[in-house]
Amino acid sequence: MNFKEEFIKIYTENITRPGNKELLNWLETTDFFTAPASTKYHCACEGGLVQHSVCVYHTLMDKHFDPTSDSKESFAICALLHDLCKAQFYKISTRNVKNEATGAWEKQPFYSVEDSFPYGHGEKSVFLIERFMRLKTVEAMAIRWHMGGFDDSARAGSFAISVAFEKFPFAVQLHLADLESTYLREKHTSAVREHRGSN
């Protein structure tokens, strides 16, 4: 099973809210399943965005899911869709790179950002999801603030993130799952598979 197939399996088995099918159909019209998760940091490869989304889901479930009190649907929505803002966000460009072996300059592809809808990061994901499917307040808060201190408004000195984290611990859990996935579990392309002991 590849990452797209796993994403769709988790999505369809756990998300049943009205609008879920329309949202998934819309995802298929974008580059969500082929886009990278970043230009050069984590999962900066074709399909990196869906790989990262699946990894965050497993990290969030492994570390924070309590079956007696938590919603599988909320966990799936927030993990799988927190970076929806990155669909239609990257483009493939080329640049000249010197081949050290031959001394010749060669064109090499790389990802660059071309944001056609500059609405922020977490807030853009919330906006795009809610075009199709209503979010609970706790879900919207978790997705909005999943970047933690890396969020532009948090760096600008806003206290909103502290209030959000205090009132909505799930937002902290999603942020931690995103961090662990990015910096620990995604070191190699097959990190998710190796972590879970599958092929």
Topology:
Elements: H1 3-14, H2 20-29, H3 48-64, H4 72-81, E1 90-98, E2 105-113, H5 122-130, H6 137-144, H7 152-155, H8 160-167, H9 169-185, H10 191-196
Antiparallel strand pairs: 1-2
Helix pairs in contact: 1-3, 1-4, 3-4, 3-9, 4-6, 6-9, 8-9
Concise account of the structure shown:
The chain has 199 residues and is mostly helical.
Detailed description of the structure:
The protein is mostly helical. It has one domain (about 5-90, about 120-195). Helices cover about 50% and strands about 10% of the residues. It has helices spanning about 5-15, 20-30, 50-65, 70-80, 120-130, 135-145, 150-155, 160-165, 170-185, 190-195, and strands spanning about 90-100, 105-115. The protein has a two-stranded antiparallel sheet. Helix 1 (about 5-15) crosses helix 3 and helix 3 (about 50-65) runs antiparallel to helix 4 (about 70-80). The protein is globular and about 60 Å long. Residues about 190-199 have low confidence and may be disordered.
Structural class of the secondary structure composition? Answer: mainly alpha
Q: Low-confidence stretches at least 5 residues in length (pLDDT < 50)?
A: 189-199
Largest sheet: 2 strands, antiparallel
Radius of gyration, rounded?
18 Å
Portion of residues in beta strands equals 5-15%
Count of folded domains: 1
Quickly count the helices.
10
Give helix % range.
Answer: 40-55%
Span between termini: 9 Å
Taking all residues together, what is the mean pLDDT? 85
Write down the overall geometry: globular
Major sheet strand order: 1-2
Give the number of DSSP strands.
Answer: 2
Order of helices and strands: HHHHEEHHHHHH
